[in-house]
Amino acid sequence: MLSTLVSLLLAAGVVVGASPAYAAPSDLCAEVGYNAGFRGDGLVTAVAVALAESSCDPSATNVQNNTPPSRDRGLWQINDYWHPEVDDACAYDAQCNANAAFEISSGGTNWQPWSTYNAGAHWRHMDEAQAAVDRLGHHEPGPGPLVYPAESGRVVSARSADGRLEVFVAGAGGVHHAWQTSVNGGWSEWESLGGPGGAELAIGPNVDGRLEVFAINGDVFQHRYQLSSSGGWSGWENFGGGGKDIAVGANGDGRLEVFASGPVGVFHKYQTAANSGWSDWESAGGGPVNSRLEMEKSADGRLEVFALNGDVFQHQYQTAVNGGWSAWENFGGGGHDLTVDHNQDGRLEVFASGPAGVFHKYQSDPASWSDWESTGGPAESQLSSERSPDGRVEVFAINGSVAQHLWQTGVNAPYGQWESFGTGGTEVTATANADGRIEVFGASGAGVYHKWQTGFASWSDWIWVNNTAGPAVN
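The structure corresponding to this sequence follows.
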């Protein structure tokens, strides 16, 4: 016991019988965070997350509100269920804990596994974190957290700034909305919003935390937005003419960028400043007509757009963070639907469905791609994907007959086999709760169901959202 106490004191920078080496607990987090590799804005965020998680106490332990039952350990509260590779000796050692946090957060660019970050609790510690980094005396530039685009489709979901999930569903008569009444908790009743009927939807966060929702059908394009962070919503406003599909993502400087497909190709418009107005529509240089669109973010922060129709699959990408766009490049043959996600190491993963099932392609390094590989799975299915709390990508597929899912067997690793996830439907989308657990929404002509992770490979049953069917999605 004494040796354990001594090791903890030394890890905290305290020599037994001497004065504390740090002016504040945050100084410990700043030093071990810097030694682990965090830099710039990423280091400040890392310290703020640690303050929110443990008050920068290397011996901190939490077992409250963990599903499944488990322990959060040390400075960055590394969970022993989701990260069994981090043993107790490492978790309660300040530097080893920081090293693990650096790896799990992809160098400070992805804090999704931390519920305090997802719930916005780190924001109240940012001034203290910045002061600790200033005292450390290192001001090298470094990446801040990346904001990854949410899945687009007829059902979309994202977290408000306070950590509560919001879900929007496009029915024949317009868009419907429900939200969690508490973080990781239950749901409101469905609210009818009007707007475009039978639309495709996309959702993205403004840099001030306000969510913005976009809805397009063949005739109109409209959007609405939160009037304050986690607050009420505006009415629908015109955003352009009709089209086939849309996707939205945030630039590195926080400006939202929207892509829309239609009968003459792909167009885009973007905020002229963060939280501000919009440019005019511009041609994206061609692209597949009437295509399904998804957007993802590369490890260095550049947005990349993927566009698929029945005949062709193409993609284009920013040539620099916040910058212009490449020409469209061939990405494969045509298909039915697609989903794009990222590994813990930042490499992108793309899945596309068609008459022969689901195929897969992934970045082998930041500048090159694998060949297409067959995974099996449901033919002509709607696709979605999300990352488990430990960083593994999980893919969901639904068609009129079946729902199935498959997942990586390890972080940055190959995938297992498709397994049953329920019966058929018309749409699926996956998102993450504030505590990192995946929540999946499945729609059909009967309404909207959801189910959620209760463990690594265990799930709740499908139930209605708030025990009511909600809008039909045909």
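The helical segments are 2-11, 25-36, 40-54, 88-91, 94-104, 115-118, 126-136.
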